[in-house]
Design brief:
InterPro entries: NAD(P)-bd_dom, NAD(P)-bd_dom_sf, Polyketide_Oxido-like. It holds the Pfam family NAD_binding_10. The protein has five helices and ten strands, in the order βαββαβαβαββββαβ. By secondary structure, the protein is an alpha/beta fold. The protein starts with a strand and ends with a strand.
Length: 209
């Protein structure tokens, strides 16, 4: 497949590029600055300036965008607005690297992880910003999108186990009572779902088995 990875220079982006390349896909890195990946080709452009023409011809676009400072947190929504507008009505699928804070704690979906009393206050702003991005994405009906939430403990230095649990909207623990996944196993799971093409306009989640 022809896959574009937006924000390919980030930790998750670089590993998604590598995983897709290792499987023989053609991968274009879309980056704002000098490319740090081994992608097949490169488009150097700010995500907010991407157009329909820039994204034409790809089977899948992956947004690995992340923002962490108070002034940039709203970009978790604005970047998705740009991407969904550019892809609207096309056959290109959009995969979004999401967050865990918006996962629900009950099947009735009455309480989210970030609303729990023991949720770390330091992570609340980013969790709320990413949740707003997901809320916006749920309003998009003219595009095949998949929002992929990692486990609560998303480890950038974790090892590749090759094993993971695919879950849905509800916060899930493994047999050890943990919610953890490495960036590299997350990349594995995401590319698996790109290839499987099982979900449309849904949020899924992944954690280490």
């Amino acid at each position: 497949m022809k896959i574009a990875v937006v924000a390919a220079n980030g930790k998750a982006g670089q590993l998604i590029v590598k995983e897709a390349l290792d499987r023989g896909h053609q991968v274009t890195a879309i980056v704002r600055s000098e490319n740090k990946t081994a992608a097949t080709s490169v488009l150097q452009k700010d995500i907010h300036e991407l157009t329909k023409e820039d994204l034409a011809g790809f089977d899948v676009v992956v947004s690995a965008f992340g923002a962490w400072t108070p002034e940039t947190l709203p970009q978790h929504t604005s970047t998705l607005q740009v991407l969904t507008k550019a892809l609207a009505g096309s056959s290109t699928r959009l995969f979004v690297v999401g967050g865990a804070g918006s996962l629900y704690l009950d099947e009735g979906r009455s309480l989210r992880l970030m609303e729990a009393p023991d949720f770390p206050a330091a992570y609340l702003p980013i969790a709320e910003a990413m949740a707003k991005g997901l809320d916006f994405l749920r309003t998009v009906t003219d595009l095949n999108w998949v929002y992929v939430s990692p486990a609560a403990d998303f480890q950038d230095a974790g090892e590749k186990t090759g094993h993971y649990i695919l879950a849905g909207e509800v916060f899930t623990l493994n047999s050890k009572g943990e919610s953890v996944i490495s960036y590299v196993d997350f990349a594995l799971a995401l590319v698996d779902e790109i290839e499987a093409n099982r979900f449309n306009q849904e949020r899924i989640s992944v954690l280490q088995a």
